[in-house]
Amino acid sequence: MLMTGSQYEESLRKRDLVVYLFGERIGNVVDHPLIRPSMNAVALTYDLAHRPEHAEIMTAASHLTGRRINRFTHIHQSTDDLVKKSKMGRLLGSLTGCCFQRCVGMDALNALSITTHDLDTRRKTDYHRRFLKFLEYVQENDLTCDGAMTDPKGDRSLAPHAQADPDLYLRVVERRADGIIVRGAKAHQTGAVNSHEIIVMPTIAMREADRDYAVAFALPSDAPGITYIIGRQSCDTRKLEGETFDRGNLFFGGHEALVVFDDVFVPWERVFLCGEHEFAGGLVEQFASYHRQSYACKVGVGDVLIGAAQTAAEYNGVAKASHIRDKIIEMNHLNETLYCGCIACAAEGHREASGTYMVDTLLANVHKQNVTRFPYEIARLAQDIAGGLLVTLPSEKDLKAPETGRWLEKYCRGRADVPAEHRMRILRLIENLTLGTAAVGYLTESMHGAGSPQAQRVMIARGVNIKEKQAAAKRLCGIPEE
Length: 482
Ligand code: SF4
Ligand code: FE
Prior knowledge:
Blueprint: H1 5-13, E1 18-21, E2 24-26, H2 36-47, H3 55-58, E3 59-61, E4 68-70, H4 79-96, H5 103-123, H6 127-141, E5 145-148, E6 171-175, E7 179-190, E8 197-200, E9 215-220, E10 226-230, E11 256-267, E12 271-274, H7 280-294, H8 297-316, H9 322-347, E13 350-351, E14 357-358, H10 361-371, H11 374-386, H12 389-392, H13 396-400, H14 402-411, H15 420-434, H16 437-448, H17 453-463, H18 466-477
Parallel strand pairs: 1-10, 5-8
Antiparallel strand pairs: 1-2, 3-4, 6-7, 7-11, 8-9, 9-12, 10-11, 13-14
Helix pairs in contact: 1-2, 4-8, 4-9, 5-6, 5-7, 7-10, 8-9, 8-11, 8-15, 9-10, 9-11, 10-17, 11-15, 15-16
The structure holds iron/sulfur cluster and fe (iii) ion (FE).
């Protein structure tokens, strides 16, 4: 079944999540003005799948049932699937101008399809069968999954079992005949309260002493004992000011939450790793590499920001100035370089033993490393082009008030043929993307999402064959092999 956006919204209403925001429990998550824009962004992943012009990118044939499914629930069956995934990220980023959240679940499903298969092959366990059953349920019901990896981690110099508080990494506290009891938390959970299911994975490679922390499972997002505490974003209360264009992006946004698991029961059928610590590192690397590819989304958001900067330049009457044109070229150069990375790691993907296609790990890490940098430079150039009014602009209410509106009409205008309101709207969008709620997704999430920069550098160091490069150099200048 392919849900529509409104069916998705209705499906969320049936969940009974425990969500806190500003110190109070929210009853209705879907209609809350601070969360609704993020729900709208996920809803678009459903609606686009019904549009014929996007069907090729947004849907795929399930390898389990052969039925048409949303690509966000698909297990990649070819490098073509991987390339389409990158294109889907750019498309949705450009249509929402924010984080649309659904990729983490897709990446968790694909990583688990590989790890559970490898586990069963080497350990004669039953995880892959369980996983495929869960996957079919997700595909058949077109569910959104949250991929929950990042633990709070406490003292970074200590292993999970050595922390002063043993709950700083999520762990199994009890094994029962019918399932396990888990305790801990997952931080920075993108789109958590817009998800039907939450897929938990370990966050680092683990040793024998950490075996209770080597756990992966899936639960309905409203399972008893799970609490969500919504994170704040810069300028988030703009969304509480009603329908004003001061929000910048009128339709979409993202959200993150701290998700607490207070002795939560997980039935064995939903457990995909439990104690096999030596498989934790591989699962983390697979998920991280897939999610680093997913940062194709930032290329789409970059498209929006470049479009906004060009528009601001035109409204200011400076679009033809050579330095402005050069800055727009630079922004495009950086953005398309990002696109090269997410396409390349997909095109160079390979088949794993499970049949799942995996991105090229080195190139995925190089791509994400670029993402930790280029959006900042693109944002800097956008702010340069936008001018200082970006941060001194009065509110929409001042534009609408009779006493002040006439002054703003007169003095906030750039080119005479462009209404002041249009100039204000485009500046608000640039503010949203580079300083406001969407800057969480475009900037800081670009830095830390899918692993902070150093994590990619470690993977790059591991992925390159430095000896081969040395041999190539030595051969050319006549140094004999040692
Ligand atoms: Fe998807 Fe990008 Fe949001 Fe991550 S940051 S969930 S890749 S849209
Ligand atoms: Fe992310």
